[in-house]
Amino acid sequence: MGAMIPGLMLGLIYILFLLAIGVIKPNAIPIPEDAKRVDWGVIQQVFKAVVPAFLLIFSVLGSIFMGIATPTEASGLGAFGAIVLAAYYKKLSFDVMKDVLLDSYKTTAYIFAIFVGATCFALVLRELGGDEFIEQAFHSLPFGPYGIVAAVLLLVFILGFFLDWIEITLIVLPLLAPVVLGLDLNIGEFPGLDNPQLVWFVMLIAMALQTSFLTPPVGFALFYLKGVCPPGVKLSDIYKGVIPFVMLQLIALILMLSWPNLVLWLPSVAYS
Questions:
Q1: Where are the domains of the chain?
Q2: To 10 degrees, the CA torsion angle through 237, 238, 242, 244?
Q3: Whether pLDDT at 1 is above 50
């Protein structure tokens, strides 16, 4: 949640920048030929499409942040809400439920297989002293504490080109977390958090991975986007169009690295 704050702020600035360009130079942002005129009917359609999804998101995240449900319980609440929405849109059927259950079983088996493999790998690596070797290797870098954190983020950013976030989270993150915990980082005191330095580091990793998934030449998210785009949209067009968003992500990452309060203030208040 803390990682979203700088990203939302920069996203809002980017939207305002586009609106300013549209006002100054309308030809730069032309209106589509089939665009409907904005009236109350269109606004009602937007609300009908947005409000149910917003209520589902709020029921999951809101129940967590208000202390009503744990993340595991909130996931069950989200699954129930998705079933209600499917019934509301008249898309709920036996075939849909069967496909959803099969996909859930496959995803769960995939995650647990990685979890078992990661646990075995980490156990063997620790017994062989690999975690101490990694920690000493990073601490020997002549960059200072924040420079070492930047080196860790760069490593995670590169790994995001080739690995999914699940593998990085279960295998790489447990090896890199002790490196950051051993650094003398003056990020301040946050009474509501047991280990603010680790929370801050995890949010930095999340932002780095999110940026990596948007960055060519791999960019998993770009290929997902290409799969739902019209046939006339080329992958090179997506590469060009994603550049401003990558820049925003990098700026947000630098802000989070420079001012940990952007990440830690809201969790410290929410859980105090």
A1: 144-272
A2: 20
A3: no
